[in-house]
Design brief:
By secondary structure, the protein is α+β, with helices and mostly antiparallel strands. Helices cover 33% and strands 26% of the residues. It has 16 helices and 25 strands. Helix 3 packs antiparallel against helix 4, helix 4 packs across helix 7 and helix 12 runs parallel beside helix 16. Pfam families: DUF7800 (PF25077), PhoD (PF09423).
């Protein structure tokens, strides 16, 4: 009998369509059914590196539908599993009008003990929805903004798996090495916790990667890229990481129309049909996407009920050459700038890395970029590069020209220069392992422009780092670092902002709540009890 290895995951939804992603243990036909409500959609699996996947697309649904479903593989029901103790998984389409709730977070270590990482915000969130009955407030979308898996900080379970595949000490020691390792990493993250598995089967989920999905400091600089490609093991690692991300995460971010026109999806399915395995095609695509990032767009954008969500790839699409440096390459920036338009009630820009950091960190990163690029001479540049890699100075502030370009576009939208100004423009981010809200105060705009950060889902900072970040969070701490930046001839930022809520260092998940022209956000945490409670709340408009 065919079995599910991973999934089902409810991925891209619209008002009338839904996507179900699964991994199975053998080639088969996968059907998603609810015969009472006329749902019956099917797809054949495709194969890559010996693993079998299906993406089932359902069309013709009603807006705001809540349709329980089953997954059938070659005629046998494989989901729901008997005795699981969870409510039926549902296809949940979006409403055409009314409220929209987007829950988000980042940085989740799994598996692991409570003593190591605290209670899992994603597990606790699932339990709240499962037990809340009719009174539970459900998100319309779950957005995971980076570090869904940790490829370079392995759990004992992952080390045991790797130990069964290669000799101790084989490079890269203590890290995943290839596609097969990544498949196990995703299985440990999304299969073994039944509450999370149920959550992903019934809440529409979108993702974007950050560095640990591939490797710490991924694409921090041109020097870093040269160092990595000089390693004999790196090719298998980067192709395995990008190829598995494409299958396990990116495929579900695309709409059915985008997948239908996607040349990579067509090539992978064709190779699977012709040769039985599309692994070589996937590897070639992944290597090209890394070496020539302009050939692949991982960013995406969806419009829902008066809200535009833009999810920006701030990792793989970086411009890193000996002569130029940008958070986004030229094609990616043009795409982002083109999507930043007025005419919506709310504009949400999700980037795994926060756009607006505490001032001390922002000025430290902009100073470091200038020094590493030669502002204090060749020796200073070498020291600056070492500091950049050691201290993870790689956010938007460390890409000064990119920061200024995005600021110009967002301020233009907020002033109504690209169509009617939205009520709110919000950056949604994670990465830094604490949560906060920052508000742009200058220049004046019609839109309220904010940075909302929620991190971690489950990977709290150690105490000494909490204290360091509390100090950096204060307004006074920014002054000496701004002085350093001025010495390196870094111009003043084109916008001014202040931190208004937080910082909170607990595991957490945030929900942006949108209704008409109103926008607010709340953060929830499992704290020390494992039961979700409100950690903070803020009105934005």
């Amino acid at each position: 009998m065919t079995a599910l290895v991973l999934g089902p995951h409810l991925r891209h939804v619209s008002h009338r369509t839904a996507t179900i992603w699964v991994e199975t243990d053998r080639p088969c036909e996968v059907r998603v059914v609810n015969r009472e409500q006329g749902v019956d959609a099917a797809a054949r699996t495709f194969t890559a590196h010996g693993h079998h996947y299906a993406v089932v697309e359902i069309d013709g649904l009603a807006p705001g539908a809540r349709i329980p479903y089953e997954v059938v593989a070659d005629g046998e029901t494989v989901w729901p599993e008997a005795g699981a103790g969870f409510p039926p998984s549902q296809i949940r389409t979006l409403r055409e009008h009314g409220e929209l709730r987007i829950s988000f977070g980042s940085c989740r270590r799994s598996p692991g003990t409570v003593e190591e990482y605290g209670h899992d915000a994603l597990t606790a969130f699932a339990d709240r929805l499962r037990t809340g009955g009719e009174d539970a407030v459900w998100p319309d979308v779950l957005l995971m903004v980076g570090d869904q898996v940790y490829a370079d900080e392995l759990t004992p379970q992952m080390r045991e798996f790797i130990g069964g595949r290669r000799a101790p000490g084989s490079p890269p020691d203590g890290e995943v090495a290839d596609y097969e390792d990544y498949t196990q990493l995703y299985k440990l993250a999304w299969h073994d916790d039944p509450a999370v598995r149920w959550l992903l089967s019934t809440v529409p989920t979108f993702t974007i990667f950050d560095d640990h999905d591939i490797r710490d400091d991924w694409n921090t600089s041109y020097t870093w890229r040269r160092q990595m490609w000089a390693q004999p093991w790196w090719k298998a690692r980067i192709t395995g990481g990008i190829g598995s991300y494409w299958i396990y995460q990116h495929l579900g971010n695309m709409s059915p129309q985008d997948r239908a026109s996607d040349a990579v999806f067509e090539a992978v399915r064709a190779a699977s049909d012709e040769t039985g395995d599309a692994g070589d095609v996937l590897d070639a695509f992944a290597e090209k996407a890394d070496k020539h990032p302009e050939t692949m767009r991982w960013s995406y954008s969806h419009d829902w009920a008066g809200t535009r969500l833009i999810v920006v790839d701030s990792r793989c699409s970086r411009l890193l050459t000996a002569d130029r440096r940008g958070m986004l390459d030229d094609e990616e920036f043009d795409w982002l700038d083109g999507r930043c338009q007025g005419g919506m009630d709310h504009l949400l820009i999700a980037s795994s890395l926060p756009y607006l950091l505490p001032m001390a960190i922002h000025h430290a990163e902009s100073w470091n970029e200038a020094v590493a690029e030669g502002a204090w001479g060749r020796r200073g540049a070498a020291v600056g590069e070492k500091i950049r890699q050691a201290a993870d100075l790689e956010h938007w502030a460390a890409f000064e020209r990119s920061f200024r370009a995005v600021a110009a576009g967002v301020v233009s939208v907020g002033r109504g220069e690209r169509g009617p100004a939205p009520a709110s423009i919000s950056f949604l981010s994670g990465d830094i392992h604490y949560s906060y809200l920052a508000r742009i105060t200058e220049p004046a705009t019609q839109s309220k422009i904010t940075q909302i950060v929620c991190s971690p889902l489950r990977n709290p900072l150690e105490g000494k780092f909490r204290w360091a970040n509390r100090i950096a969070y204060s307004r006074a701490a920014g002054r000496p670092f701004r002085f350093l930046a001025k010495l390196a001839k870094v111009p003043a930022p084109p916008v001014r902002w202040r931190m208004t809520s937080g910082p909170w260092f607990d595991n957490a998940i945030a929900t942006v709540e949108l209704s008409g022209r109103d926008c607010g956000v709340r953060w929830e945490t499992p704290g020390t009890s494992g039961t979700m409670s409100e950690m903070g709340r803020a009105g934005i408009t």
